[in-house]
Amino acid sequence: MKNFLVCVALMVMLCACQQAGNTGKDVNHAADSLATINVKYATGFTVRDSASVRLVDVGEKDHFALVRNEDDRVPEGYVKVKVPIQRTICMTALQLSNFTILEAHDVVKGITGTKNLFNEDILARVKDGRMVKIGMEGEFDTELVMAANPDVIFISPSKRGGYDAIKETGITLVPHLGYKELDPLGQAEWIKFIGMFIGKEKEANELFAGIEQRYNDLKAKVADVAQRPTVTSGEMHYGNWHAVGGKNYLAQIFRDAGADYVINDDETSGEDLEFEKMYALSANADYWRILNSYPDEFSYDALKASEPRNEMLKAFKEHKVIYCNMKKTPYYEISPVKPDVLLKDFVAIFHPELVEKDYQPTFYHLLK
Predict the structure, then answer these.
(1) Fewest Cβ atoms nearer than 10 Å: which of 77, 122, 190, 350?
(2) Is CATH 3.40.50.1980 the right assignment for the domain spanning 45-211?
(3) 223-366, what's its fold?
(4) Using one digit for the tens of pLDDT, what is the confidence trace for 105-157?
């Protein structure tokens, strides 16, 4: 009997040790998922940790308290969001890019549409109903929104809106201000923002660290180039040339790639200009960057047909148009989280000697 009791006691102790070990593993896993978030480049959100509550300020007006337990108390003025969220809706391709790089499509239950989307996994989810199309801004199908049953909806204040009907559902709307970032790395850093909501802080930190290092390493490599070509951007649409401003993130990528943008001293992120004004700036630019959704093979003939005066630009005459077709390339779908790849595409054009000879561009190439 005595030996039996000893055996029972040993078994109880062993079970207790195993449970303690398992508990420790759970605690460590939780600690990993709550990895510290340091914001280095993004200006649209800030993060503060307080006990079990993570306080996230988005812009000046929106404040969210991310909690692990429903009964956690949050400061006044903060909207409580239990994380990790399980279901959400994305309103823009930029937002969706964050979920794609974090391999978190399972969390996305709704999107506005599939125009210019190439990701096979997303298209398959839309086809079989795991991801619904809720319609475009101002014309949301609230029944589909409710059917998606999102914990939160990520919105973009830059869009036309139409969020009033959604607000009435009581679903928490979370602004995603990545589109406002003027630094390419600042825009990519919104990976961390999404990571906090879906419990992938550690993965987001690691992914961004890789992007940051690759970007800054190449930027440093280009910094001392002897010759910096000039580059212009955009084209005529409906009587105006929408020009990327000197403060735009793309203008920053041009500079980081070793080129001088023709509107370098402009303080805006973009504006519409008449052809004559843009011609005065762009006539002698060495390169001309164009992004559009041309239905067929884009060419210099097509560029001239769209605006005969285009042939007057030096970059047109010398066939130095840098081109990306959104109908054939997942530009907005993935480029926001690949500024390092965008940078390399431009470096390969401006300073080809600084990249490997067999480099294949992802987004931009010289138009033949």
Answers:
(1) 77
(2) yes
(3) Rossmann fold (3.40.50)
(4) 999 999 999 988 999 999 999 999 999 999 887 778 889 999 999 999 999 88
